[in-house]
Design a protein that fits this description.
With about 200 residues, the chain is mainly α. It has one domain (about 10-199). Helix content is about 85%, strand content about 0%. It has 5 helices and no strands. It has helices at about 10, 15-40, 45-75, 80-135, 145-199. The radius of gyration is 27 Å and the shape is rod-shaped.
């Protein structure tokens, strides 16, 4: 029966911590590169840009949490490094939670704007239908066809509003969930890093 020997460099705490640093830095670099690519060109005053950007941050935030945990694990022998990482994690977690307010606000604004645009377009179509009803000789369609078209426009506008609201609510809940959970994780790591230094 063959026996496997473990290399001392991998079994030692130094080797494990070095691996944690390497993987943690790689994850952190990947997260930052993703955010730069997704946020370019920056347009923070655009409602759609902010919503999309924060959604992408939420979707990729687990990588940031994983990177922070690995970097903290790799820094267990350095109290100063652990404190700095802990403080950075704590601040980032708080920023994630504060961004949730922006996600909620922007989602409500986008929902209101979208519903208003749908209502405006439906009203314009209804006006065109009423004008065609008022001038039956100018159109090649009957009065019944115009009434059916008006009902169809109302039904489609109502369905479109409902679908839009449902889609916005679902994506907002997903973004909020990710930001809250990862924010709590980062705050927990931050508190751990600061507590270990005091101990």
């Amino acid at each position: 029966m063959a026996s496997f020997s473990t290399s001392p460099s991998f079994a030692s705490p130094y080797g494990v911590r070095s691996i944690c640093h390497i993987v943690g830095l790689a994850c952190l670099a990947g997260f930052v590169i993703d955010l730069i690519a997704l946020g370019f060109p920056p347009d923070p005053f655009s409602l759609e840009w902010r919503i999309d950007f924060l959604q992408q941050v939420g979707d990729r935030s687990i990588i940031l949490l994983f990177a922070a945990a690995l970097l903290m694990l790799g820094s267990l022998d350095s109290r100063r490094g652990l404190r700095q990482l802990g403080l950075l994690c704590l601040l980032t977690g708080i920023m994630f939670h504060l961004s949730c307010i922006l996600v909620i606000r922007d989602s409500v604004l986008l929902q209101q704007r979208t519903v208003r645009n749908i209502s405006t377009q439906a009203a314009e179509l209804q006006t065109q239908i009423k004008q065609a009803e008022a001038n039956p000789g100018s159109a090649q369609i009957t009065l019944d066809e115009l009434r059916q078209a008006a009902q169809l426009v109302d039904q489609q506008a109502s369905t479109l509003k409902q679908n839009t609201q449902t889609t916005i609510v679902k994506s907002s809940i997903a973004s909020l969930g990710n930001l809250i959970v990862v924010g709590l994780g980062l705050i927990g790591l931050g508190r751990y890093g600061l507590r270990v230094r005091k101990g």
